């Protein structure tokens, strides 16, 4: 019997694929394809199977940056849309599991090695306690892993990146007013993602130089200038990004009682290195009035893995079926 499985972790920018020969086997042949290079998921799946030189396996798990609420999946931060049943029929998958990418990443948390986690303050993670997960990339993913009372865990499939973003300073209030003019509702994702960093920088420029030409910087440009400390406004934008992330992460920790730790995933935070250590991030996590001491004890970890942990989570989701 064919026990191999195709695994995928699909974000708004990149689609990562991998092969697993059987349940529990190493994840291998990891390849990354640009989402913009394909008209749809079907084309990317067909291409990766051709590159691997393998026929479609009987089982496939796809972690995708989008809520999965039924058969039709339409990505929030990319143009791909597909029917789960149609994809299953085209590739003759006996089993196709499609789940939110941060739900998959949450499932992978217990399997992460200490070397894949960089601590950002707090105490020790308590076993059998809820774990929070948040991560900015193309969007802002949020999930959690909750103990099921039987020695296992249940991953939360939510859309916490779209909660309303609060301001904690007058400067932040001014920036959020700028974002509100553009977007109406200002969610956490509007500021804490790649495009959000660009918008924070543009809002600061508009506040400090009204009527000036809009900046033409990408998220990578703003980050590079901030890390090099070569542009004060880029530094402020990235520090505000980290502050907003800390505020939302602290809210998540309180909501969940995440004494098992809060984990930072996504593609942006690992690239910041020590910048986030010196930013307002940790102070904002703990700045919750009477619950400062409660939050000070909760550890935060940056997920720093060479291989997409969501692929491991996708494999675990297949194992549970």
TrEMBL record:
Keywords from the UniProt entry: ATP-binding, Cytoplasm, Glycolysis, Kinase, Nucleotide-binding, Transferase
Reaction catalyzed: D-glucose + ATP = D-glucose 6-phosphate + ADP + H(+)
Subcellular location: Cytoplasm
Residues that hold ATP according to the record: 8-13
Matches recorded under CDD domains: ASKHA_NBD_GLK
Family annotation (InterPro entries): ATPase_NBD (IPR043129), Bacterial_glucokinase (IPR050201), Glucokinase (IPR003836)
The protein's Enzyme Commission number: 2.7.1.2
Any one GO molecular-function label of the UniProt entry: glucokinase activity
Domain of life of the native organism: Bacteria
Family to which the UniProt record says this protein belongs: Belongs to the bacterial glucokinase family.
Stated name of the protein: Glucokinase
């Amino acid at each position: 019997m064919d026990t191999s499985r195709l695994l995928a972790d699909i974000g708004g920018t990149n689609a990562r694929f991998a092969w697993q020969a059987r349940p529990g086997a190493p994840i291998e042949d990891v390849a990354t394809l640009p989402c913009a290079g394909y008209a749809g998921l079907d084309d990317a799946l067909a291409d990766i199977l051709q590159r691997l030189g393998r026929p479609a396996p009987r089982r496939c798990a796809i972690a995708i940056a989008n809520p999965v609420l039924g058969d039709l999946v339409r990505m929030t931060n990319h143009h791909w849309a597909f029917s789960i049943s149609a994809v299953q029929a085209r590739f003759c998958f006996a089993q196709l599991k499609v789940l939110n990418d941060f739900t998959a990443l949450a499932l992978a948390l217990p399997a992460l090695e200490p070397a894949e986690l960089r601590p950002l303050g707090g105490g020790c993670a308590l076993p059998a306690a809820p774990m929070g997960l948040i991560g900015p990339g193309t969007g802002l993913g949020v999930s959690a892993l909750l103990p099921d009372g039987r020695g296992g865990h249940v991953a939360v499939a939510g859309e916490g990146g779209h909660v309303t973003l609060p301001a904690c300073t007058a400067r932040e209030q001014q920036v959020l007013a700028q974002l509100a003019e553009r977007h109406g509702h200002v969610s956490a994702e509007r500021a804490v993602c790649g495009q959000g960093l660009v918008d924070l920088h543009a809002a600061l420029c508009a506040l400090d130089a009204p009527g000036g030409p809009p900046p033409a910087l990408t998220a990578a440009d703003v980050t590079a200038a901030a890390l090099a400390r070569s542009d004060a406004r880029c530094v402020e934008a990235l520090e505000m990004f980290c502050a907003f992330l800390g505020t939302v992460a602290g809210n998540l920790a309180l909501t969940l009682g995440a004494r098992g730790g809060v984990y930072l995933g996504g593609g942006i935070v690992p690239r910041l290195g020590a910048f986030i250590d010196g930013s307002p991030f940790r102070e904002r996590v703990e700045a919750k009035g009477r619950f400062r001491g409660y939050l000070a004890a909760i550890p935060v970890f940056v997920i720093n893995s060479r291989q997409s942990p969501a692929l491991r989570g996708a494999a675990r989701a297949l194992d549970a079926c």
